[in-house]
Structures are given as structure tokens and as C-alpha cells.
Amino acid sequence: MSDMEILSLPAGGFLTILLASAFLFGELLVKAKGVFAVIGSGLFIFYFSCFLTDQASTWIVLLLGGGLILIIIDGKLFSTGLIAAFGFVLMIIATALPTPSILYGFLVGIAFVIGTCGSFVFARWLPKRDYLKKLTLFYRLSGDQGYNSINSDYHQLVGREGVTITPFHPVGTVQINGKKYSAITDGVFLDENVPVKVVSVDGTRIVIDRR
User: Fold this and answer.
1) β-pairing, 161-164 with 195-202?
2) Does residue 133 have a pLDDT over 50?
3) In sequence order, which ranges of the chain are alpha helices (DSSP H)?
4) Burial class of residue 160 in the structure, from the number of CB atoms within 10 Å of its CB (0-12 exposed, 13-18 middle, 19+ buried)
């Protein structure tokens, strides 16, 4: 069976993109010495060689390459996942656009998502790259469960007394034990130099009330 015959079937495109995305993103997540990158890139080239035309090739390549670059930049510089998510969407669009039908495009888009999620399986057996470690650490520290040291310190403020150093309308700044904190009242307006007490803490949200 020729390349075109394989990719003329949606199942063929689904399987190709599933494996291509799994290996390509696996290379970004684990230390595979470039082997996964070669396999994933080869499968993408095989896929796109059957669908790209002279008119569409430039835009598709820009979308696919641009999306991958955004994911790498996010991993190297930011590790927030937001820029990577945008790049991921661009890559899905680039994969689905050249397909001969909406159904085919929808299926390869799903395959791209499944393959990317499946790439995390490689992290169970191979050494992880710094990107995966930093991204995991970021979400742990930015959770709303009170897991980071800042939130732990803030929870210790409950019951402490202090004084407002700015007016509260109803947000302002309060001084407690010689340190300044951004805080909020329960809808009450306060002036400067008003004695207050911390009544609750939710994450980094400090709620105060007049003593």
C-alpha cells in the first residue's frame, strides 16, 4: 500500500498523527537523545508530504513551526503553560487544515491531543527534562490549596492585630508586626491608623476587621 493510500483513510491519518505527536512531545518532556524527535519529525513529514500544496505549505509550516517554538520558549523562559497552550492550539490547527474533509481534520486533531497526552507516559521510564519539572513545580506553588510557604505564612496571621496605613475602600494596606500586607475588609470602609484584626486568610487574601 502506498503512502497516499494509507493517508487517504482517516484511520491512517489518525494513527500517524497520534504517533507523531507522542514522539515529538515525548522528546520535549524526557531525555531521549534526539531519537523521539527524529521519529516524530519523520512521521509529521510523511503526513504533510501527502497533503501540502504550494499555496498552503507556507502557512501550514509557519503555524506548525511557530506553535512548536512557542512551546519551547515557554518551557525555557516562563514555564507557566499559557504560551505553550497557545502554541499547542496552533499546531493542532496546522495539522487539521490540510486534510481533505472536516471529519478527517477533526479526527487528526483528536489524535494530536491524545498523542500529546500519551507522551507523558514516557516520563515513567525515562529521565525527565527540566521543563516538565519546572512546570510541575509552578502548578504546585500556584495552587489555591495553601501549599506554598507564602500562603503558610499568611495563615499564621489569623487573629493577629495591626493598624491600617492606607484608607480601605475596601482594599488597602495594613501593617502587622512591622510588615506591610495588602488586605481587604468585609465591605467596610476604614481610614488610616485604625486598629484592626485579621479575621481570615484565603490563599493570599487577607481579610481584616476593626478591633
Assistant:
1) antiparallel
2) yes
3) 3-7, 10-29, 35-48, 54-73, 82-96, 102-118, 130-141, 149-155
4) middle
The CA distance from 21 to 116, in Å, is: 5
CA distance 94 to 154: 46
Cα–Cα distance measured from residue 138 to residue 33, given in angstroms and rounded to the nearest whole number? 26
* Cα-Cα end-to-end distance for the chain: 82
pLDDT tens, position by position, 145-178: 444 445 556 788 899 999 999 999 888 999 998 8
Give, in degrees to the nearest 5, the angle at Cα 66 between 61 and 68: 100
Number of other CB atoms surrounding residue 129 within 10 Å: 17
The answer to whether 49 and 58 are in contact (CB under 8 A) is: no
Residues 6+ apart with CB under 8 A from 66: 87, 90
Other beta carbons within 10 angstroms of residue 180's beta carbon come to: 12
How do residues 69-86 score in pLDDT, each as one tens digit?
A: 988 887 777 666 788 889
Q: To the nearest 10°, the Cα dihedral for 43, 49, 55, 56?
A: -20
36-55: pLDDT as tens digits: 999 999 999 899 888 776 65
Q: Would you state the cell numbers that stand for residue 46, as one nine-digit string? A: 510523511
